[in-house]
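Same chain as my last thread, 349 residues:
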Amino acid sequence: MNNHENNTVSLIDVSTYLPGEKIGADYYARFAGNDELAENVMFRAPRFRHHVAPEETAIDMVERAAAGLIERHGSDVVAGADVLITHTQMPDMPFYGGGGGMAHRLGMKPNWVIDLHNGGCAAFVLGLNLARTLLATGQGRTALIAVAQNAAGQVFDQPGIRRKAQASVPGDGAAVGLVTLSDQSPILDIECRTYGEYAGEMTATFDPPRKWWQPGPGEASIGFTESKITKVLARGNRQVPEVCYAVCDRIGVQPKEIDLLVTNQPNRVFLRNWRDALELPESRHVDTFEECGNLFAAGIPVNFDRAVTDGRVKAGDTVLMAAFAHAGDFAGAAAVRWGGRPAGDQGVR
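reply #2:
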């Protein structure tokens, strides 16, 4: 793990956490109201998902997700990391990210604590890009990438929102990735693209209208319309394959030759379209949509952890991770030559 003469950076391991018991699709079906978007392909409910507990914080989730890394690599590796990169869908406090609290909970004293917001569902790829850059330029030897998706049980389960079609798709979960200066499991290439012209097209709405921070009646939901959904579908269908092809071109591999594709999982339509665009069979595209729903930024690391645990990826395989964010304002892809996981794996927690 200490061979870094060429500043090679590796994704060594990922560990994850899913809160509580599975919640079935019938939970939301009994609340369903008269939503004109109910039949839209974006909102076809998964069989199950998980919800964060009422008093469970994003810091709690990350601490529980990190348990697998501590078990396999030792507490000193986690506590001694030089860089902590975090992304939380719903920060525990609105004015600052969770990085400081997560570092303290994990016993860390890192040189860098960076909270990402713009990465959205592609935040794990953005975190890999940032970690690789920092470590390769001498800013440390070890980085943690911590992501927490906690909006399902906090936003989408509000009494007024759970009646909407959009509420039945999200699920909660968290993950922590371990990145080091090493050639054990090298990050081969990363492509990140910002589409600023689409920034702000994902909006929080209230009835009656107000700014998110203003007091008043009405619960927050995502401002979906048929027109917006059509645009997001078109962008996601285009952007994820584009960043995948860019990475594959630079590493000299055809997308259809990739051993495993790991993406975010907004819905079944995107999953199918991305596989088709890359000419990959379903057996080489891992997802947990039916068990976990849309995990937002936690989707890639949770899915990858599941693939490792289930033996769907082996040492030497080329893994392609890709996602797009929000209404299409960001997309990223990363290729990793997986080096295998240490013995004692306990899988998704």
